[in-house]
Write a structure and sequence with these properties.
- It contains 10 helices and 10 strands.
- Strand 5 and strand 6 form a beta hairpin.
- It is α+β, with helices and mostly antiparallel strands and 330 residues long.
Amino acid sequence: MPLLANIRMKRESKSYIDSLHAILTAADLFEGPKYMLAGLSGMAFKFSVHERLLHLSVTAYGQWIDEHGPAIANLGLYTESDAGRTRHPTFPYYQQEAVKWAKQSIDRGIGVLYWIPEFGVIHGYDDDDRIFYVQDGWSNESIIVLYDNFGLNFTPFWYGQLFRGKVTLRLEEMVLESLRLAIHDWETPHKTLPNTDIGSGRLAYTFLIQGLERGDYDAGGAVYILDSYLYSREEIARYLKEVRWIFPGLEQASRLYDELLLILTGISGCILNIAGVRQIDQVRIPALCSLLLRAQCLEDQAVLQFQMISSRFPDLKRSTIPRWGSHSPR
């Protein structure tokens, strides 16, 4: 019954980063605090909001393999992942293979990133009972997932990802690419086409503000989105403070996010705790929307700084035409 006791996932950031940090640090594939992992991977910059402020907003930042691929590549990691929809007739075959490679990764001493939902970590298995042990970050107790139920959940999606090793990249090139990933996220309004009910980047602010103003939003989802937003913006501020010496212009961007942190305090104050239930203070929605507009303006200015920095260096990843092109999977 292999069980990786050195993996400790704790929910704080996006669940993908929480899982990734737990796996990589336990396997000596990453050194550093979680906010540096979130920043260097570009994941901290991802911001998506459903027009009705549903909980799914936080993880609906795009096609996962397409979104996570550049993030992992910028960390110099070798990874393998598979995902899809459980309704596809071939799913049982992919499921059987995924069970095999998940066990093999545990045998090598490296946890497996897994959509529960949200993302969690497979850190052990038991062949006698045909089960995986999964950490969700909310509890110290492991979730039990049967081999036969691998990938099955209340969403139509399944996802698994493993890691084998890494190469060392220069910090300067990692930081530069993280800024370019941030620019792309900020300027791409819809990451889940053909659906347009989820806004990303700059548009996510608009969807959040409009949803609050209309008043017909999901109350729990609104708080969940704001909690994730508040934490990720603090991650960005801490990340930029750490790397601001690398490029001229990053100091200015760092100051803009420091200014944003002051606004976050006001946004946090618009969430009430009534009898153990956290909810948006209805009376303060106009003030909350005003604060979000100010925050959007600051991020816009920061992205302009990122663009100026990026423009000073060649970008072969985006200036070279790919041989096979790209498309959004259906």
